[in-house]
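Changelog note: in this version the structure field was regenerated for every chain. One regenerated record is shown below for reference.
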Amino acid sequence: MNQLVPNARTTLRPVDHLANASGKISPVMILVGDSISTPIPTATFDETASLWGILREEVLKRNPDVNPSFYNRGIGGARWDHLSDNKFATLNATGLTLPTWPDNPVYDPATDSWIDTIEALAPDAVFFNFGMNDGDIFVEANFQDVLNDFATRLPNTDIVLITNMVPNLYSTTENIGGQAAQDSRLFVAERIRSHAFYNDIGLIDLGREQCRKVAGFDPTLTYMTRGVNAAAVSTPYTVGPCDLDFGLVADIPVPNVWSSRIKITISQTGANSASWLEIYREAGKVAVEYVVLDNAAGRYRTVVSSVNSPTEGTMTLSVFLSGPTARIELNGELVDEAIIMRHGGRYSPVMSFLDGRSTAITATTYLGTFMPVTPQLTFAECFGSTGTADDVEGGNDQNHPSSKGWAYVFASVLGDTDLRLDRGHVAGGILRTGGVVPLIADNSTFEIEAPFDSGTFYLWCDHQSGGAAVVGAQVHFYAGATPSVLFSQLGSLTELAAAGTDLTGTTGADTKFTISVKNGAIELENRRGTAIGSARYMFLGPKG
């Protein structure tokens, strides 16, 4: 039965996903993406009724004491791969029609890449909105290249992913109208969505909101119906058509089963992308490996369980997928249960062996169906037309929303997104604000803008992670006076004056971590000889 439900809630937590921007009085925020991200995606309507306009409006409304700088870096017709330096070394090489960016530092499209123009702005937060133009030509390798490149070049920049919409189901334009075009966009949106969950990156689930408001279903919620019950089948075995999620319980004869890996596809297979998992034996235990790309990086999660791999008889393998989570059991024992990354859409999962063998099994299957939701506007209302009379203002009848589409979809999902930058709170006349410092590489610095002229700065690590060093410090700083600066070595605090010299410009051999106050900012300088693991900080100071 269809149901009318509230707006889809997003999973953006400012304290974690906008931690860098939260530490700034004047953060630099950039929207980068395809034509839907540009200032006026439909020329017949005002830019305030757009993703670009509504995002700026919501940030400003939630943060009256912050003065952010906004930059738009959207390009019409763009895909994820256009942002990849490995594929397009320059903007001209993309072949896209380049917009005018008057607020950008001087750049040369013949020599600068798209990422170069973003890096030049030293952003505190970047919002990504791609996928509408990717569809079934989405390239997983380039998607990974883009996010890895940003992590390397802008390691302290907050990243927020925005899922793509589906286009007009009833359009007569090729690769826009029809069910296949819908499914290909769902394929990309789930990849973006699950990437955010798996890597704990901020997510604005625009695609989910639009499916609920227009297409009439929730692409993140399914209910199960029985497919087959204890059916005698052989591998390779097609589980059956499903909407994203499924369950498979297979009784498999053990002899020789471990001489090849069991492969189960967990998404449709695109021209350049697919998702699957492989189950195998490792040192007498059952292991599972999750794959989004058949290379070292794409085989992103490997788990060797404590479950013994049977050597005789028949074993019962149970695999259940629900959105970005997977649960795998063997003979009733848990092999793995975790958040995973996968592509999405409607497809038919297949169980096979990597060596292509045909093996008789007994299968019981469960097939997911997207949860129906009562739509609030039609595709025609959502996407409007290029006309100027007798319909809702704006839209292009294909994939650019009308005024009504912006209001029902974009304004509602961004209105429900927590975009409050964590500037602290007041208690007893004292302002307290804080955040998380990203990983600080050895021989590097990181600056945190002080929220007031004088006060106390605290830095600490909750625990040691991944071999990174642990630090802790307390700094009293005053306007117009030499601050009291301390440094920490293995957590012990010592007055800098007693320790010796300013460490700026020295090498990692000095094994010290220094905090100083420069131009109204707290500068953390790491010379410990190893990275500093994600530390937390807090300011205490007078309000007003």
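Spot check on this record: The first strand starts at residue 28 and ends at 33. DSSP finds ten helices and 30 strands in the chain.
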